[in-house]
Every structure is written in structure tokens, then in C-alpha cells.
Amino acid sequence: MTYGEQTQPPEKALADPTGAPAQTRPVALAILVVGIALSLFQLYSAGIEPLGLFYQRSIHLAFIMVLALLMFPVWGANRQRGALGWLIDAAFLAGAVASGWYLVWNLDAIFARAGFWSQADIWMGVLTTVLVLEASRRAIGMGMTIIGLVAILYALAGPRGALPWLGEWLPGILSHRGNSVDRLVGQLYLGQEGIYGLPLGVAATYIFVFVLFGAFLEVTGAGKFFIDLAYAATGRKAGGPAKAAVLASAGMGSISGSAIANVVTTGAFTIPLMKRLGYRPAQAGGIEAAASTGGQITPPLMGAGAFLISEYTRIPYIDIVLISIYPAILYLGTVYLFVHIVAMKAGMKGMPSAELPQVRAVLAAGWQFIIPLFLLIWLLVANISPMRVGFWAIVSVVAVAFLRGALEMLILEPRRGERLSASRLIAACKAGLALIVEALALGARNAVAVSMACAVAGIIVGVVGLTGLGLKFSSMMVAFSGGNLVLALILVLIASLILGMGLPVTASYIVLIVLVGPALSQEFGIPLLIAHLVVFWYSQDSNVTPPIALAGFAGAAIAGSKPLETSMQAWKFAKGLYLIPVFMVYNPEIVLGGPVAYVIFTGVIAALALAAFAAALEGYLFAPMDVVSRLLVIPATIAVFHPNFQVELAGSLALAVLLGFNWYRGRAASRAGPAAG
Predict the structure, then answer these.
(1) Contact 35, 445 (CB under 8 A)
(2) Are residues 312 and 419 in the same domain?
């Protein structure tokens, strides 16, 4: 048995978070065929013959919409399609195919018309917009669809628009002249800032190929490899399974790019063990949710965020990855420290060695999973296009899996006395081909939600560009904050939480950066890259912040705990998600670089502040913290975040003294314990 055969079925690992219901056999076969065709098309365009932007994006979106319409019935997951449902879905499916075919077939003629659209262009644009909204409703819920509809209505409102009466209801700062249907459709369907704009472009190239890379790793057993490696490294320590959850989620984040997918994969192993060790169910679910959210900000994938940030800022992808490493370490380190503190307060012990995997055995069984990751990093450092890097990373996964199988069957098994036969060789080849087919289909299914979110985000971006809403939103933000940067960041945080209740993280980031990005960088003077990172980090908070905490809810389902209580625990453990972006704003050297000594100092005081804040929240580090010490941590932490060096230094020294005093008390208590005994 190879390492990959020991893992759980890949459908359980990565397909469940999509929420797609069980399908009849013909529909399941159709989804399989369309998914494989989409993945093969993406691999062809990524590594063999790149296509033009509109060709790539229109074909990709047509495939994605067909998959979404097949996977999610028109009446919802709990009802059969029936004759009427199939009639409606057949019309939508035909429209999805036609939308992609029309652009591909007529693209040269459309470019030649240069803004003078034909009636066929307009009608196809209307059809595609309706299809995008309907597929979005099915795949990612009503929240995104409603926001897309509101954006369209806003674009049409105004004295010169198709809905002049609606413009009378708009406040003065939000009013605009309005747009005709033809002008709006030209922007959304035929322009470069609409449905086929940058967000979908990133989804159709970089994001898809890396999601597919994750699917190939997953079906070959990478998830279990990362989890076992984390257990081998931390299992003997106090709170070992919880610490393993933090490390495993970081590893899974590099291949799945989804907080909910991380929870259901690593959490299926870690949450029951945490409960067995002594963590309360809500704590176990909250720890897993907070750790899995860390997978969204952990390079190289960063939940697709690194690609989008790179495209918006025009900063090379590898640079985004490199500067994101230390902030991700700070976040995961904070969660790790919370876990450690809870374990020490409760007097928890590690797991027995007999119940833990050995590092050497884990590496011997799964060394092949490390090679594609190293190849990926090497190619990125060599400044190869991320899309081409993803292609070769996928090829490397297949290659090393083949080599591992050949090594087992041709060398290792004969040494154990197992003879190679033609029937076993044929069976192994069939099993390998089945894994490839499953990975191709799985990658396509897992890309549906993010691609549909990016398509609807394109509608919003197109409307913002057409109406000037971004500048108006920036003006409102400056007015509401009174020019105070702290208040502006709080407004961004609140906006991200509200948007996160109805949007996926990727879509929330795109919408927020279009609306508040100009204000942060131009009005408040935050460097462009840091403004994007702040918005991206804050966009993650819907995973762990009540009342809508999707990762927290997933953790509660596995832990058997109350969703709200679990979400509160996740919110507490994920405090780095709110503090680290503020630190980046006031100490940009941690991201942008500077004098080496000062960068090191900045990194050290950031870790010190986060450790002190975690200790103050839990009331424990090396020993219980008294109330006075916990209260003094607050102003000292604020001082560390101050841009003035003298204030930073004073705050850092205060925190060092407070933590040093706690360490002394812990040492004194440990000495008094044996003496008393």
C-alpha cells in the first residue's frame, strides 16, 4: 500500500465545502466530463499554447457556468429538478455555451466595431450577465448576487440612465448621470473592466492552475502527509494535536487555498484528538478555524490573494510571496501561542509516543510531496510565469507519483518477496489513471466558487469604473473618519465584516480594494502594497468573526459544539488577523524593508507585542498574570504600534519587563513546587 492509498477519499476532502448536492449518475457523469475537459483546456493554455485574454476568459467562464448549473439545481440542493427544472436548466446551459461561443467566434468583428455594438452584441451581453448572476446565486449564494444586482441598478439610475426615477432616491454624493443599457452592457460584457476583466482573468489563469495543483496533491495523499508530519513534530508537546492543527493548516493552505476546506480536512483528524486531550469542544473547533484561516494568508497560494495583489499592484508574484512569509509566521505563531497557553493553564500533556507517527517514517512514506513544492518555489524564484509554474508543478506531481509507484512495484516489493505480475501492473496503471481523472475533475469543481465570485466581482468593478463610485466612496471614507487613520482602518474592518457576511473572501477583497484602496493609498498615504495587504487580511475576518463565521461554523459541526460559542473562540484565537495589518501600516519596514537592524528590531517587537497581547487575553504565560499586568499590556502594546521610534522602544521595554516578571514568577513557582513537595 502506498502513502496515497491510506488517505481519505478526495471527494470528502475538497468537494464537500462547495455544498454541491448528491447527483444522479447521468448528471455526475456530465460533471465529470465537463470538469476534465475544463482542466485539460487550462493545462493546454497554461503550458502548451497560451491564448489571448478574451479567448481564455470567455472559454473558462463558459465551462465554469456549465459546471455550476450542473452541480447546483435551480430549485436548490434539497429538491429534485423535475421536468420544469430541467427545462429551465437546459435553457441556461445552452445560454452558457452560447455566451462563450459568441465571443470566441466574433471577437475580431467585435474589436473592429470598436464601441459601435450590434444588437446581437447587446443581447448576448444581457444574456451573459443574467447567466453570471444565476450561476453565482447557485454556487455562492444570494449575497453576491444581490450585490451584483444592486450595482447594475445603480449604474442605470440617473437623469440620463435607463432608470431615471431611481436616481432621485440616491443621496447627493452618490448621484451620477446614469447609463443606458447599451452603455452598461458594453462595459460589462465587451469591456476590459467588466465580467471578463482582471478578477476573472486571474481566476482563469493563475488561480485555476494552482487549485488544480492542490487537487493533484490532495488525491495522492498530501493532506495526510502534512498532518502526520505536524503530529510527528509537535505531538509530544503539551496540547500537541492543537499545535499540529496550526502547522498542518499552514501546510494545507499551500495547496487548498480555502479556510473551510482546511477545517474539514485537517479538522477531521485534529478536533477529535484535541477534545480527547482536554480541550473543550468549542475551543477545539475555534482553534481549527483560526489555524485554517491562517492557510489563507500563508504563501505560496494565499487563497488566491497573492495573484490578485500582484495583478493590481504590478508587483511580481514572487515578491508578494516573500514579503508575506513573516506576517504569516506572526499570525500562525500567535495562534500557536494561544494553543500553548490554554494547554499549560489546563495542565495538559502531550500524546504518548506510541500513538504518534515518526518523522522518519512519515518522510519515507511521503517524500514525493515535497519535491513539487520545492520545484514550485525554484521556478517562481527563476521568474517564470506563475501559470507556467503551476503547469510544471502539476506535471511534477504526476511524475513523482509515477516514480514512487515504480519504485514500490519494481524494487521494494520484490525485496519483500512480492512478485510482479502483469495483472498487478495493469491494476496499478488503472489506479493511477483513475487518480489523474479524479484530480482533473476535482480541480475544476473546486474552482467553480472562486471563478463565479470573480465574474460577479467584475460586474461590480465595471460599475465602479463607469460611475466613479470609487472616488465617491473614498470621499465618504475621509469624511466619516475625519482624516484619522485609525478610524479609517476601523471603517475598513467593519466594511469587510459586513461584506464577508455575503461574499467569499476573494470577492470581498476585490470589492473592498476597488472602493477603499484609493482612499487608503492616496488620502491617508499608506503605501500601495500595504493598503492591499491590509484589505486582504481584513477580508479574512468573516471566517472567524461572529455572527457569520464560516470556518467557525465548519469547526463547530465537526466538534459537536455550538456555532456561536465556537466562533467566539475562533475570533479570540485569530486576533493576529486584526493587529498585524495595523502594525504593517505603522511599521511599513516589516513589509517594504529598510535598514537591516531596524527591520530586525521591528520584527522582534511585533512578535513581542503579539505574545504579550495573547498572554493578557488568556491571563497566563509562564504563570498566571495579575490584573495590573494584564491592564498594563494594553498601553504598552499600543506604544509598540506607534510610528515614533522612542515610543516604540518604550513600549517594547515595558512589555519585556512585564513578560520577564511573569517568567520570574513562573520560575519561582516551579522551584517552590518541589520544595513544598
Answers:
(1) yes
(2) yes
Say if residue 11 is in the same domain as residue 111.
yes
CA 327 to chain centre: 15
CB under 8 Å to 509, separation ≥6 — which residues? 305, 308, 535, 536, 539
CA distance 324 to 300: 9
Residue ending a domain, among 407, 441, 475, is 441
Largest Cα span, the chain? 91
Q: What is the pLDDT of residues 227-261, one digit of tens each?
A: 777 777 777 777 777 777 777 776 665 555 567 76
- Is the residue at 386 inside a domain? yes
Question: Which whole-number Å values give the CA distances from 20 to 154, 451, 478, 611, in the listed order?
Answer: 32, 16, 42, 41
Q: How far is CA 105 from the centre of its chain?
A: 35
Does 334 fall in a domain? Answer: yes
Cell representation of residue 1: 500500500
The verdict on residue 195 lying in a domain is no
Q: Residue 5 above 90 pLDDT?
A: no
Backbone angles phi, psi at 149, to 5 degrees: -65, -45
The span from the CA of 437 to the CA of 220, in Å, is 12
Do 238 and 106 lie in one domain? The reply is: no
**Residue 52: what are its φ and ψ, rounded to 5°?**
-65, 160
Give the closest residue to 133 by CA, choosing from 91, 78, 96. 96
Domain of 73 in residue numbering reads as 3-142
Q: Please say which residue of 127, 142, 157 terminates a domain.
A: 142
Question: Residue 491: how many CA atoms within 13 Å on its side-chain side?
Answer: 20
Query: With bands split at pLDDT 50, 70 and 90, how would you rate the model's confidence at 7?
Result: very low
Task: Give the Å distances, CA to CA, from 217 to 379, 408, 442.
Answer: 18, 19, 11
Q: Which of 257, 199, 216, 209 is nearest to 387 (CA)?
A: 209
Q: How many structural domains comprise the chain?
A: 2
262 and 398 both lie in a single domain:
yes
CA distances from 259 to 303, 370, 559, 634 (A): 8, 22, 16, 30
* Contacts of 473-481 spanning 24+ positions with Cβ under 8 A: 473/515, 473/516, 473/519, 474/515, 474/516, 474/518, 474/519, 474/522, 474/523, 475/173, 475/519, 476/173, 477/516, 477/519, 477/523, 478/519, 478/523
Question: End-to-end CA distance of the chain, in Å?
Answer: 52
* Percent above pLDDT 90 for the chain: 17
The verdict on residue 471 lying in a domain is no
With contact defined as beta carbons under 8 Å apart, do 429 and 248 qualify?
no
**Does pLDDT of 6 surpass 70?**
no
CA angle 31–36–41, rounded 5-degree value = 125
**Distance (Å, whole) CA 428 – CA 675:** 64
The helix/strand/coil state of 103 is helix
φ and ψ of 157, to 5 deg: -80, 145
Predicted pLDDT of residue 674? 56
